[in-house]
């Protein structure tokens, strides 16, 4: 599988994220994905000067598939994320929480749909041409 054009976020595990068996609690994965997504969008939007991507998005859907238990350890876990779909008024980010060594191991595969939101008008809005140009450059596989 080609993993080009994926953004990488190194996520530090926290002791409090574990369940009684020493696994990351399933509910904590969404927090990890949010941290990765916010860093991804903020870093990209800042570089491109498109601040509406930083301040005007809401998550309308999450899908999370748990593939393997992740045990607590001091080393961070790798989150790879990329844009998989862009529509007129939404876009989708795909994620994999993985380790690369000794071979690629996938703990979680997930997807979130984001919609642009005009908080002043309190309504959904369409993706602007400037936002679309930035998002097009983030489409990965």
TrEMBL record:
Key words, A-Z: Hydrolase
Record-linked Gene3D superfamilies: Hotdog Thioesterase (3.10.129.10)
Record has Hydrolase as a keyword: yes
Family matches, as Pfam families: 4HBT_2
GO MF annotations in UniProt: fatty acyl-CoA hydrolase activity
CDD domains in UniProt: 4HBT (cd00586)
EC number(s) from the headed UniProt entry: 3.1.2.-
Record keyword Transcription regulation present: no
TM ranges: none
The organism's place on the tree of life at top rank: Bacteria
Enzyme class: hydrolase
Entry protein name: Acyl-CoA thioester hydrolase
Phylogenetic lineage: Bacteria, Bacillati, Actinomycetota, Actinomycetes, Propionibacteriales
């Amino acid at each position: 599988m080609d993993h080009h054009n994926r953004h990488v976020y190194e996520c530090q595990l926290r002791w409090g994220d574990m369940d009684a068996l020493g696994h990351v609690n399933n509910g904590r994965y969404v927090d990890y994905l949010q941290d990765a997504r916010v860093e991804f969008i903020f870093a990209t939007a800042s570089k491109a000067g498109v601040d509406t991507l930083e301040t005007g998005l809401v998550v309308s859907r999450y899908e999370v598939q748990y593939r393997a238990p992740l045990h607590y350890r001091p080393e961070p876990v790798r989150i790879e994320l990329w844009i998989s779909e862009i529509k007129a008024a939404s876009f989708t980010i795909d994620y994999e929480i993985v380790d690369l060594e000794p071979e690629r191991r996938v703990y979680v595969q997930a997807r979130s749909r984001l919609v642009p939101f005009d908080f002043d008008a309190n309504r959904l809005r369409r993706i602007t041409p400037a936002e679309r140009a930035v998002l097009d450059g983030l489409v990965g596989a």
